[in-house]
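[agent] plan:
  1. take the single chain provided in the ticket
  2. run structure prediction with default settings
  3. attach structure tokens to the ticket
  4. add a short note for the reviewer (M.T.)
[agent] executing step 1
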Amino acid sequence: MTLPQRGYRGQRYRGGLALLTRNSTRFSVTIHSLSGAVNSILGDNCTSLNSRGSVHSSGTSPSPHQVVAWSLSSQFYNDVIHLTGVYIFPNEGNLEEFFHALTAHSNHPRHEPHIYAGDFNAYTTEEIERHITPLDSHALFHRVGDTNPAHPPSSPLTTDTAPAADFRGRLLLNMLKSIEFVITNGRFPFPAPIHRPYTFFRNPNTYSILDYNLIAKRHAPLIRTCQVL
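[agent] step 2 finished; step 3 output follows
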């Protein structure tokens, strides 16, 4: 997504996430918008799947955070592959409700791979997912993350629910524990990359990791590489 530079920081909703797929007869793609404003672009045609201005039947405004679910199927592959794209606005609240909804969306059949990918605007440093045991170490290598001491997730006992990267990081780690998913970027390939896989840079010299790819621990052996380009 490209936004005009003039007045950029004055725009409340100035971010987003793009998911791209090749138009192929080998795969069929089913798309469902779960939250936020989502557009489907095919060639020169743009279709809105969910309008940001809509409201729920209760009369309350929906979450602006964006979630879109793709299900990919093919006659050449036995299982359906699920991909959930996420964009969390850094200044918007209702985060606990939003992560509850993300967690509930992980209820696909256990044998079907499911990947979350997107900009969570969250700090996790190198904290180990709390469901990982020593017996998992043969398939789950140490994750290279953001070691900046200013970028830790908030404490598990925090009572501060203001929208901030540390709180979003704690909610993300809580979700990973509850559904037994792991972070893949910085973990594959092995051995670890020489350079830390930062996904965000801001002048004068601020690097961080705010974007993540997630997959169920039981499906981690399917991952060969996950790199930040």
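[agent] step 4 note for reviewer: Residues 197 and 228 are 6 Å apart (CA to CA).
[agent] ticket updated
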